Task: structure prediction
Amino acid sequence: MIKEWSLSDGIEATNELIDIIECNESVAVLAGAGSGKTELLAQKANYLFFTEKCAWPKRILSLTFKTEAQINIKERINKRCGHKATRFDSFTFHAFCKSIVDRFKNVLSDNERPINNYDVVFRAQEADGVNKILMDNLVSLAIRILRKRPDIKKIFSYSYEYVFVDEFQDTTDEQYELLQILFQDTNIKLLTVGDLYQSIMLWAGARQTVFNDFLNDFSATNKFLVKNYRASKEIQDVLEVVLEYIKDPTQEVKELSSTPANCSINIFNDEYQEASFIVDNIKEILATGVNEGDICILTKQQSQQYTETLRTALTVAGINNLEMTDLQDALKEPLGRLFSLFLKALMCPSPQVMTELFQVNLVLNKVEIGDDKEETLTASVVNFLSSKRDFVTVNTTVEDLLTYVQEFIHFIGSQKIKGRWKQYKSPAYYDLVWQSLELHLRNMCSQANSLNMAVRLFNAENSVQIMNIHRCKGLEYNTVFLIGLEDQAFWSYRRNPFENNCAIYVALSRAKERINVTYTKTRSHRVNNGHDNRSSTWNNVKPFFRLLIDKCKLNVVNFTK
Result:
């Protein structure tokens, strides 16, 4: 008998959400920005476990592309599913493939088989195929094993009833092939969730036809999850028109009846005029109580070059700002989170920071909350922090801070960290992340007038964040400035209009309250190999400009007159 089930408290029971959750076949979900994709997976898992549609001992497998997403989904499942979450296996694609290689590598011939305890490396020049395996080659190795031994896939059929794949639009040809080998023509049901209109990873090898292929190859049903819970009503209206256009640019789209008050296009003569406008705008926004960290400046590419003048103007105005394009991955790494938590616990502790630090230590020691060992482990962290705080004075240097961080990593156990997060078994990768974090801390200490301020700036929580569009997926801000809607920035627009339109949509959909788009007639940095490309044009991106002006009714302010 099927038990009655209901959504978790606080989750709106929309028809589209319930329809996806209760669907008992493979489903491809096209989700809009801010629609709650992670929560959908958590509610679906809760439903399957509670109603016993995924009955013990069967399990659910979740595959993601980034470690951060894998951890986020697992944490949400733990919150929603309680003890049943032990039957939810959350992997990144690479970690899942590594588990196949580790278990079944003896299937491979001697000349292609990795040794036991091989290292995973991230640069091709470091890989030798035996002692050191390139991260991107784990998928092909897993495929090779499954091709040689088709019977191995039965293990997965026996284990799993459902498979979830998040950010499905970023799936590569090899990853899709893996899904086909393991799950096509089986009783396992797949739930793929992604945003076709955020397909901005095609340059990284994503399979352009992956949704259509999945619908055909797995006899899947196509469903939608488009309600945006993040943005204001006026931004939701703008995004709805943009989505309609991206789906089919040849069709007439609806026209908004009024101008959205907090959305505008701004035209300037040069970067200095643009910078002055943005600085003044940010000052006004900060005066309303918005934090610097809730403001984002996005560029299509070359963020450092496009925002050099602006960053100088922000700094002169006393507005903290941080170019995140190269830094973001390091801060999101578990090592980056530990680095940041320790610094905040040392210099400016809060109950939230201390609780998270205690929880990480419990996880590394495989101790549950409420266990007899919890009090001892928590006390040990408190004592360690107290001993280090005794040494912190106005004369403490960045070298001292780095030493304290290293001692903390040693204290909680570097081997435990490498055991919990497999990517750190590669010494080269561990060192790469550490070097990025160390350089960032040094930069913040050189900019800030105190160690406390440097630590607050370290995690970008008190800084205007600046990055390329492809770095902003999954993030949200009160205010977004999209810098340089120009042919020169969107240089491939005419050749790849869909991908470029998706990128603009991603940028706009990060905003909750305000959107400002800029076009600047000249940009002094655009001189490449003697080619003068400083003058901006809008011949190629004109269709999107017309969409924003004619259909979305964005207010156009021309500062060149």
Observations:
- Residues 445 and 451 are 6 Å apart (CA to CA).
- Confidence is low (pLDDT under 50) at residues 200-204.
- The longest strand covers residues 511-520.
